Amino acid sequence: MEVGTMAVMALVISENGFGKLVSIDEFREQKRGGGGVTGFKVTEDTGNVAVVVRVETGKSERVLVYTAQGRAILTPVDDISVRSRSAGGVKLINLAEGDKVVSAAF
Question: Which of 38, 41, 57, 103 places its Cα 20 to 30 Å from the Cα of 26?
Answer without folding.
Answer: 103
